[in-house]
Amino acid sequence: MITLAITSQKGGVGKTTVAINLAHAFARSGRRTLLVDSDPQGSVGLSLTRQSRHLTGFYDLLTDPSLRAESIIVPTRLETLSLVASGHSSAYELGGGAMGAHLHRVRSFLKETEELGFDICIIDTAAGLFGATADILSSSTGVLVPQQAEPLGVRSVPKMLEALARMRVVNPSLQVLGVVMTMVQQHLAESLEAAEALRTILPPEMVMRAVIPRDDLFIKASAKGLPVGVMDEGAGALAVFDGLRAELEGKINFQ
Ligand SMILES: Nc1ncnc2c1ncn2[C@@H]1O[C@H](COP(=O)(O)OP(=O)(O)O)[C@@H](O)[C@H]1O
Ligand SMILES: [Mg+2]
After folding, report:
1. Within 13 Å, how many C-alpha atoms sit on residue 117's CB side?
2. Which ligand 1 atom lies nearest to the CA of residue 213?
3. Does some domain include residue 188?
4. pTM here?
5. H/E/C letters for each residue in 140-197?
6. CA of 16 relative to ligand 2 center, distance in Å
7. What is the pLDDT of residues 64-99, one digit of tens each?
8. Which domain holds residue 111?
9. How many domains are there within the chain?
């Protein structure tokens, strides 16, 4: 099973949107896909299932050794797509989120999901590389970094990629897949310049060719609890995320 973490230094850059829509694209292509919400704020769950606040989820599993992956996986209308909500994180927060604290639980969760037959597990994370996110990265096969196309944000990206490269000391099989630019505004010079700047400062293979445009449909979709691809006017967004999926398939070594 491929485990793909969606991570960034800052919040609000489009991680959750990328995670949901990319998971949908993988599932539509026939891969048995599990989308895991590891953000204690629980945004994947919030946008995809109304009751997710009450669902037992990822953080419950981290803190309760008797919980099995199977019991927290929720099916969706799409047969190849399942979800894990973030669950109740207060016990986790009380227990401290020091790096390594939950490595064993994260790994056994991933092992169990692999045994359940999933091809890919996409993990949406909270901003930053601390706590559970560090343990997830220590156990992942790949990491993708969404970055909003705005001038100030772009400058911090090389440092983020360096920090991720250092994670490879702990996890040599972690592949830094690169940066995907989000909320790109084709009619705004600053947005295009930021996108251009990123391509200048990073090695070409570190910037995904697919770019996610800014589109109100993403906000409408998350309000409805849907991936944007299932919306009436969602064909364009569906194609963008399918392009990103295909690009990632070219980089990731699926068995
Ligand atoms: N491509 C986009 N176009 C328009 N709005 C977007 C886009 N991507 C994300 N958003 C909106 O921006 C906000 C932050 O996105 P989100 O995916 O939750 O970021 P993160 O998970 O990094 O905090 C949300 O309200 C989301 O609906
Ligand atoms: Mg989020």
Report:
1. 6
2. 1
3. no
4. 0.95
5. CCEEEEEEECCHHHHCCHHHHHHHHHHHHHHCCCCEEEEEEEECECCCCHHHHHHHHH
6. 4
7. 999 999 999 999 989 999 999 988 877 666 665 666
8. 2-145+216-247
9. 1
Of ligand 1's atoms, which has the minimum distance to the CA of residue 10? 22
Ligand 1 mean position, distance from CA 12 (Å): 6
CA distances for 152 relative to 149, 156, 201, 239, angstroms: 9, 8, 14, 29
CATH of the domain at 71: 3.40.50.300
Alpha-helical (H) ranges within 29-89 are 43-48, 58-63
Contacts of 130 (CB under 8 A, 6+ apart): 97, 99
Q: Which atom of ligand 1 is nearest to the CA of 19?
A: 17
Per the rule left: phi > 0, alpha: psi between -120 and 50, beta: everything else, 5 is beta
> Ligand 1, from 17, 144, 185: best to mutate by most atoms within 8 Å of Cβ?
17
